[in-house]
Please model this.
Amino acid sequence: MAGSRAFIWILAVSGFASTFSGRAVEPMVGVIARDLSARPETVALLAAAFALPYAFVQPILGPIGDAVGKERVMKICLLVLVLALMGSVVAPNAAILFGLRMVAGAAAGGVVPLSLALIGDRVAMAGRQVAISRFLIAIITGQLAGSSLAGLLAAFVGWRGVFVASTAMLTVAFVATVGGFRKAPSAGGFDPRDALARYAGIIANPRARTLFLLVFVEAITVFGLFPYVAPLLEERGEGGPAEAGLVLAGFAIGGLVYSALVGWMLRRLGLRRMLRGGGMIAGSALLILGVAVDWRLDLLALLGLGLGFYVLHNSFQTQVTELAPEARASAVALHAFSFFVGQSLGVVLVGLGLRGAGLFGTMSLCALGILGVGVVGALALTQPPQRAR
Model:
């Protein structure tokens, strides 16, 4: 096994590359739609095509990771992700691209969740939230690059060129993982009965059910709008994929601000006030997005949304890694499942809301939802944790 520092770097490279591959499509919705002669509303659902398989593969990958080794599962997932992205480069139509995005989403589901579980294995609870926040820098940077750089690159090399860049990044991550995890400890075999027993123990924990519900609502309210940012800006005459990329980059910048402040927040504010504040910041940002005045204001709002979201989400992630230390990958997998089902459903619900209630009405409902996540989380998660049996 790689040394501690090299281990974190391997996880960071893999997390960055997989996150970039997942977020790069959002600022290119209009470009892909025109090139493949598809409706923008249809192409926007590529986000769901990635997120749903990512979510539904979690109940499978989590217990397999616990049983046969998290490192081994990560290597296989990275290889499949590389192959899916290679195919996306030459996809001739929207239907095939949708299929490849589904394969890519399922493969990506074995990268970040298992990385979080591995960090939980190696870092004591007292320092785990800060450690996970450091790993999140790579994830957030991948979001930033996927949201902004992809839009800028698409203006010069087209959306297929962006997929070429994403394939190259994942290839580097795969090679680094194969080399760094050569001496990973061996594990036993996979037994479905053991997997079901682990899940039963986790779900029996009320704290686990609370965390999974909170992250589900969080994903709906925060990420539902993202695939519609580019079409909304074009509709308002405020630019194309480059401007959409810059606006979406604000979310990742907010996450980086959180990563820089998390240690101070934990010392000075404590978990309860952090969760309340995160909900208030994210809710206010969603209301500003609903006004739709100018793309520059949208950028600032997304910065605030990113800050508020990561205050909430990183706190939830840290709590999840301690639910069941003997089945950590399974607990993180259920958490990721809840999150990505919510994210996929959010795209559909926000699309319906935009047509029925308009942008401000839809964002107002999302603001109430994320505020509720912060308030409920502050009340429910500041009690001593109960581990799964």
Notes: Residues 17 and 307 are 22 Å apart (CA to CA). The mean pLDDT is 85. The radius of gyration is 20 Å. The chain has one domain: 4-181+188-380.
